[in-house]
């Protein structure tokens, strides 16, 4: 455990930041799963609608640098391609 006051404060801040970032990352994964679930059911309009909602979540989390912007772009691209390839 840290002995210096500034190090103790930094540890407290890191714990709070970690909890906040973890919840945002969880929200990202949930949004991606909802799109994949809609794709799996085969309902293209529902999948497109859930992708629309997920893109906002993905972009907001990338703006906060929870995930890299290129990773966010990759998620969106692959989900869009999966929807586009549906029959």
At a glance:
By secondary structure, the chain is an all-alpha fold. It contains 3 helices and no strands. Helix 1 (5-41) packs antiparallel against helix 2 (44-63), helix 1 runs parallel beside helix 3 (69-84) and helix 2 (44-63) runs antiparallel to helix 3.
Notable traits:
87 residues, Methane Monooxygenase Hydroxylase, Chain G, domain 1, elongated, single chain, 84% helix, mainly alpha, 0% strand, 3 helices
Description:
The chain is mostly helical. The protein has a single domain, classed as Up-down Bundle (Methane Monooxygenase Hydroxylase, Chain G, domain 1). Helices cover 84% and strands 0% of the residues. It is built from 3 helices and no strands. Helix 1 runs parallel beside helix 3. The chain is elongated and about 60 Å long. The mean pLDDT is 96.
Number of structural domains: 1
CATH class: Mainly Alpha
Low-confidence stretches: none
Say what the CATH topology is. Methane Monooxygenase Hydroxylase, Chain G, domain 1
Give me the secondary-structure category. Answer: mainly alpha
Q: What would you report as the Rg, rounded to the nearest angstrom?
A: 17 Å
Record the SSE blueprint.
Layout: H1 5-41, H2 44-63, H3 69-84
């Amino acid at each position: 455990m840290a002995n210096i006051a500034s190090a103790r404060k930094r540890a407290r801040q890191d714990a709070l930041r970690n909890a906040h970032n973890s919840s945002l990352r969880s929200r990202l994964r949930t949004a991606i799963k909802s799109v994949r679930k809609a794709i799996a059911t085969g309902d293209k309009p529902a999948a497109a609608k859930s992708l629309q909602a997920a893109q906002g979540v993905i972009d907001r989390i990338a703006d906060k640098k929870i995930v890299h912007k290129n990773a966010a772009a990759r998620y969106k691209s692959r989900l869009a391609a999966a929807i586009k390839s549906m029959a």
